[in-house]
Amino acid sequence: MSVETDSHGRLYLSSELRQKYGERFHVVEYEDRLELIPIDENPLQAIREAAGDAFEGESVEELRESAREQAKKDAEAGFDRGKRAVEDSDE
């Protein structure tokens, strides 16, 4: 299936596609293509269903705080790797 944009850059999807995938999409840009990822009407519920009972009993705030802590650890680890790489290149 192919679609074209109108003069304003809008894409029009058939009613069948909208019924199947919804009306909201996240656009992912790659070097050679774009991808439309459907956004569930209730994203948190979709995640809970996909993850099963992995997040059972955790509030949105608890999940958010846990994600922040993990992101901070990941950022610090990346910073440390970059710092070591610079130090190694100076030797």
Structure commentary:
Strands 1-2 form a two-stranded antiparallel sheet. The chain folds into two domains: 13-56, no CATH class; 58-91. It has three helices and two strands. It starts with 14 loop residues before the first helix and ends with a helix. With 91 residues, it is mainly α. Strand 1 and strand 2 (34-38) form a beta hairpin.
Q: SSE order in H/E notation?
A: HEEHH
Question: Structural class of the helices, strands and pairings?
Answer: mainly alpha
Largest sheet data? 2 strands, antiparallel
Shape: flat
Strand order of the largest sheet: 1-2
Give the strand content. Answer: 5-15%
Low-confidence stretches: none
What is the count of distinct domains? 2
Radius of gyration over all CA atoms, rounded: 21 Å
Distance between the termini: 56 Å
* Helix residue percentage: 40-55%
The number of helical elements comes to 3
Number of strands: 2
- Quote the average pLDDT: 86
Descriptive keywords:
2 domains, 3 helices, two-stranded antiparallel sheet
Quick overview of this protein structure:
With 91 residues, the protein is mainly α.
Provide the fold topology:
Layout: H1 15-21, E1 25-29, E2 34-38, H2 43-51, H3 60-90
Antiparallel strand pairs: 1-2
